[in-house]
Specification:
InterPro entries: Solute-binding_3/MltF_N. The structure is a single chain. Helix 2 packs antiparallel against helix 10. The chain has 2 domains: 135 residues, 3-Layer(aba) Sandwich (D-Maltodextrin-Binding Protein, domain 2); 94 residues, Periplasmic binding protein-like II (D-Maltodextrin-Binding Protein, domain 2, 3-Layer(aba) Sandwich), CATH 3.40.190. The protein starts with a helix and ends in a 17-residue tail after the last helix. The chain is elongated. The protein is built from 10 helices and 15 strands. By secondary structure, the protein is of the alpha/beta class. The strands form 5 sheets. It has a 5-stranded mixed beta sheet. Strands 4-1-5 form a 3-stranded parallel beta sheet.
Length: 274
């Protein structure tokens, strides 16, 4: 027994030394400070397929996977906490978090108080229908649904469509299943979770083809990581890491992993929604 116990202790000690040596051997891609040395303090808004915490408290989803990979590149631990959507950005502005995620668009208003990372992906406009529509000409003259706040509402009002706004996606999809509307324009990403919840039975979701009459189909919102304006070294490092993950295909593969279209990785140059 003593021999076995000694062997176990020795093995654990060797493992501990090997782990410590590995940590010491890790060479970060960049040098920058964080709130807590060795840790990226991260707040997220649960919004799949982009962000959530798994049972072990690890960030998952498109944003979560990207940030975990960045933390690995920088030899840092990613410490993630799920917070309310109304509070997430205040954590960063007030210095209680290094970075936030939640499929945050790059907007001019946010850029006044936060450093927004370079774009990660685009939030593509989706078209839902029973017939499989994927272009604006196919819905002209038809009954079309959407939800308030979407980027394409103003442009739709200028087209020959019978537009109806719904308070939330489930009500919209229910009316479509009942045949009360012919099509819906929504963020393509929200259809992924709707499908998992059984709300898409008999319906088809497709990425809408670009059409100059609807600006959001040509220049969709770009997702980003909000950070503190007071830590330019971190912003520069994160942007450099994002560039690497775009080039090596990691972001495209992550989008595909969560059933999003890989073309969403083609963000174009950084831009702000006014």
């Amino acid at each position: 027994m003593k021999t076995l116990a000694a062997w176990i202790v020795g093995a654990l000690g060797a493992l501990s030394l090997a782990t410590g040596a590995h940590a010491q051997d890790c060479k970060p891609a960049h040098e920058f400070e964080t709130m807590t040395p060795g840790v990226i303090t991260h707040v997220l808004v649960s919004y799949m397929p982009y962000d959530a915490l798994d049972n072990a408290g690890k960030a998952i989803g498109v944003d979560g996977d990207i940030l975990n990979e960045i933390a690995k590149m920088e030899c840092l631990q990613l410490k993630s906490t799920s917070v309310d959507a109304s509070a997430a950005l205040n954590y960063v502005v007030s210095g209680r978090a290094d970075i936030a995620s939640g499929s945050y668009y790059r907007t001019a208003a946010r850029a006044k108080v936060l450093a927004l990372s370079d774009p990660l992906y685009i939030d593509q406009m989706g078209m839902v229908s029973r017939a499989g529509y994927d272009s604006i000409p196919q819905i002209i003259g038809k009954k079309v649904g959407s939800v308030p706040g979407d980027l394409w509402i103003a442009d739709l009002r200028r087209l020959d469509v019978d537009l109806k706004l719904y308070p939330a996606l489930p009500e919209l999809l229910q009316d479509m299943r009942l045949g009360r509307i012919d099509a819906a324009l929504v963020g393509y990403s929200v259809t992924i979770m709707a499908k998992e919840k059984g709300q898409m039975d008999g319906l088809v979701a497709k990425v809408a083809k670009p059409d100059k009459r609807v600006a959001a189909s040509v220049s969709p919102g770009q997702g980003s990581f909000p950070m503190s304006m007071g830590n330019p070294a971190m912003v520069e490092a994160i942007n450099a890491d994002i560039a690497v993950l775009k080039k090596n295909g990691f972001i495209a593969k992550t989008l595909e992993k969560y059933d999003l279209d890989v073309s969403a990785a083609k963000t174009g140059a950084p831009r702000l929604i006014q």
